[in-house]
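The data are quoted verbatim here:
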Amino acid sequence: MVNLEWYRTFKAIYRTGTLTGAADALFISQPGVSLHLSSLEAYVGYKLFDRTGRKMIPTERGKVLYNAIADALTKLEDVEMNFQRSTEKHTPTISVGMCFETFQITLEQYVSKLPFNLIINFGEYPEMLDQLDKGILDLIITPKKGISGTIEHEAFSSENIVLVGGKDVDKEAFKKVHRTKNKEKTEQWLKQQKWYGTTGDMEHLFSFWTLNFGKKPAFRPNYIVPNLNSIVRCLSGGTGLAVIPDFLCYSEIESGHIQLIWEGDKKVTNTLYFGTRKKTTHQEEIEHIKVLFRKVMGKIRQGKAK
């Protein structure tokens, strides 16, 4: 079934004459406009515009389609606007992308009190950047910056990737080996321990190991669990090692349920960014989410400093 947004985008291109103009009118990215148009053209089975430089010239088929839908689409938009005005309060909806663990630590506790509708999306960072650019997401929390000119990034915190262990891990034995400054012995001691990892994601372990030992780890984790918060809970059982972002386990380290074993001779530090489109209709809601994140991350940092 055809997506109504494809028709909205088609109408905007027809009236403005450019992809950029349509993107400005709809408050979405130009790639998002192109995606809607190509999807509609694939659906109807013929070309709707000829591209001449930056101008979009409607084909004869495009003119026919516009004349067929323009009045009906305008009436539908009028009904939508009037209906929204007639309700006591129109509640906006925003879509936010982040990793599952970040959501649990930060935003989850506030969801029930938000004054707007919220859709949370979990995924890989490149995928979330692409969805933000296309207008599918309104805000993302990411340690990686994209290159799209329609997206802006605002640094708001940072994370250190650290080695942690259960409370029963012999930390003094590790320190003794590490003090020898023999990387091979240190690596060998670590490899002899039981390790936790997550399904399909070894990035933290790889980056930490490569920076401190000059190569990727020559072993696989003994236990693969669903997510990083699961690792923290498993480590609280007493034994095992894992490499994870420090802000996910500050409270567990402070309470003594797990131990900070090693920050690395060379620290792996990532800057955390808010990613948004430069043009958005949800600035107020996005700022609300940003305030909550800064509040939580500030509390976490204060807890670490105690």
